[in-house]
Design a protein that fits this description.
It is built from 13 helices and no strands. The protein is mostly helical and about 300 residues long.
């Protein structure tokens, strides 16, 4: 094995051990034993485990930074930039989980800039530059660009750390949800986000049809409620009119007999008076005097001569 091949072997073994145990939990003896060499070989190539660790971190740092920077600069549309950057990070995590685990650990002081915090700061600087240009173009205050850059990078980075262990759902779906939140905000989330523009457009069309259907249903329900309200109002008005008629009838006095019954009663009373008069004449032999109360009727039954004398 050549010196270059031995160096690459030690770097690969060291990355695996550092990812599992960290710098402090890994010894030179373990690295040498896993490589099948003696400790002096490790010292010869890297000067100790700290040197080996620094090279591993720097390599992962440059690799991930290159992936994200390329994604940010390759796309034209800003949504595509965000999609490619998020997907690039998730691809790196999926393909190099050991390297990412090392980056997210607190790096040893001897590594200089090769720490996860420094990496995120570098990426945020790239994002800040892009946002500042876009803010100026839209008339926004570009002084806020650093804050927005940190927010975006932090959201993607923390989601990547979470996904490193769970690995569900798939990386493209995770990237789509990250972009959904970053691009649309909480108030405009897409129920089913996609990275593919065609699928996203179809989903938006489906959502629009659903909204139209829901609106038509709401309008129909509103019209039905309006008709029911009008019907209830008409019924209430009819009940009020009936109640007013009943009140008027009560004020005029109750009548238990209808007009036909009243006419029959009057006829019976007349017939009864005539019968009483006939009975009185029969008993006394003299014409019966009608009951007092109507002087005109009394005058009509007197003798014409007597009436003339008077």
């Amino acid at each position: 094995m050549t010196g270059k091949e031995r160096r690459e072997q030690l770097l690969t073994i060291g990355r695996t051990l550092f990812a599992e145990r960290g710098l402090d939990g890994t010894s030179v003896e373990e690295i040498a034993s896993a490589a099948g060499v003696s400790k002096p070989v490790v010292y010869e190539h890297f000067g100790g485990k700290e040197g080996l660790y620094a090279v591993v971190v720097d390599r992962e740092f440059e690799r991930l930074l290159s992936l994200v920077a390329e994604a940010l600069n390759s796309a034209i549309h800003y949504r595509s930039k965000l999609e490619k950057a998020a997907l690039g990070l998730l691809e790196y995590i999926e393909e190099s989980p050991d390297g990412f685990r090392i980056l997210v650990r607190d790096s040893h002081g001897g590594t200089g800039t090769g720490s996860y915090a420094s990496l995120l700061s570098e990426i945020a600087g790239e994002v800040e530059h892009i946002l500042a240009q876009e803010f100026k173009r839209h008339g926004y205050d570009d002084k806020a660009a650093p804050m927005y850059a940190q927010s975006l990078v932090g959201m993607v980075a923390l989601t990547g750390q979470w996904w490193l262990d769970v690995r569900k759902p798939g990386r493209e779906e995770v990237a789509a949800h990250i972009v959904n939140l970053a691009w649309n905000g909480l108030s405009g989330l897409e129920p089913r986000p996609y990275l593919d523009p065609k699928r996203r457009r179809k989903e938006l069309e489906r959502m629009e049809k659903q909204r139209e259907k829901a609106q038509a249903k709401a309008e129909k329900a509103e019209a039905k409620a309006g008709r029911a309200e009008e019907k209830a109002a008409a019924k209430a008005e009819k009940a009020q009119r009936k109640a007013r008629r009943d009140d008027d009838d009560t004020e005029d006095g109750p009548s238990d007999l209808d007009p036909a019954d009243l006419d029959a009663t009057d006829r019976d009373a007349t017939d009864l008076d005539a019968a009483d008069l006939d009975a009185a004449e029969h008993e006394t032999g003299e014409p019966a005097e009608p009951e007092s109360g109507d002087e005109s009727e009394t005058e009509t039954v007197r003798d014409p001569a007597e009436a003339a004398t008077r």
